[in-house]
From TrEMBL:
The lineage of its organism: Bacteria, Pseudomonadati, Pseudomonadota, Gammaproteobacteria, Cellvibrionales. Residues 56-138, 143-241 form the Cytochrome c domain. Residues 1-25 form the signal peptide. It comes from the Bacteria. Pfam families: Cytochrom_C. Gene3D superfamilies: Cytochrome c-like domain (1.10.760.10). InterPro entries: Cyt_c-like_dom, Cyt_c-like_dom_sf, Cytochrome_c_Oxidase_Subunit. PANTHER family: BLL4483 PROTEIN, CBB3-TYPE CYTOCHROME C OXIDASE SUBUNIT FIXP. This is C-type cytochrome. Residues 28-63 are annotated as: Disordered. Keywords: Heme, Iron, Metal-binding, Signal.
């Protein structure tokens, strides 16, 4: 049976239409998100996630912290609180006293191999910044015991702290170091300092291994103290904030 030409033509047109629609659908899937042809090209926004900013070390969050002091915080702490058995508390030290002690390490008036090496690298302008920062750090709160408020002390350490022993020409510690050892002027605080550090320094004064004292005052005092008295004074001032005088 012969198919009329008209039917062949209609069949061909129908096939072409179906093929065109299939191609359009495929192009639409492949070009999803793109502008139709004929419109100006506009690049899409970059969706690559931005990596987080590095948080940095904790010292950057402390107001006034000088980056030059980072070498100090490993042993002495961010707030100068120190570490018992390793490094003393340096928070609240008078600026000039701080400077004098670093210079003492530089010239051998104080003996500590680590501090000697580190101190040699510190110039005076840098030292001023470091000293000012740690001087501004808070000290443990101590309620001072005023001289004269108590006449008799059963604790030998407390008696030396507040009355001294004039038979051996030992003045009271608080005469120079302030009420309850909270410091006075350019004299450093003793209250709240680590006991081990106070003990070591008194022994160094006694042996003549520390010579940063003016007029040999501490050398003369420490030379008169027994080892048990040194230990008692170290414990007393380290815990004076919570200790009650007898």
């Amino acid at each position: 049976m012969k198919i009329p030409n008209r039917i062949w033509v209609l069949s061909a047109l129908l096939c072409c239409s179906l093929l065109a629609m299939t191609c359009i659908a495929q192009n639409t899937d492949q070009n999803d998100g793109m502008k139709p042809r004929g419109e100006p090209f506009k690049p899409q926004a970059d969706t690559t996630p931005t990596p987080p900013e590095p948080s940095g070390d904790a010292t950057r969050t402390i107001p006034g912290f000088p980056r030059e002091a980072e070498v100090c915080v490993e042993c002495h702490g961010l707030q100068g609180e120190g570490q018992p058995g390793l490094a003393p508390r340096i928070a609240g030290l008078p600026v000039e006293y701080f400077r004098q002690q670093v210079h003492g390490f530089q010239v051998g008036k104080r003996n500590n191999n680590t501090m000697h090496v580190l101190a040699e690298e510190v110039t005076d302008p840098v030292l001023d910044k470091i000293a000012s920062y740690f001087s501004s750090r808070p000290l443990p709160k101590t309620t001072p015991i005023l001289r004269g408020s108590q006449a008799v002390f059963q604790d030998p350490a407390a008696r030396l702290a507040y009355q001294g022993d004039w038979s051996r020409e030992i003045p009271a510690c608080v005469t120079c170091h302030g009420a309850s050892g909270i410091g006075s002027g350019n004299i450093p605080p003793l209250a709240g300092q680590h006991a081990g550090y106070i003990k070591t320094q008194l022994q160094d004064w006694k042996k003549g291994e520390r010579t940063t004292d003016q007029d040999k005052v501490m050398t003369k005092i420490a030379s008169q103290l027994s080892n048990s008295e040194i230990e008692g004074l170290a414990e007393y001032f380290a815990n004076i904030g919570s200790a009650e005088a007898d």
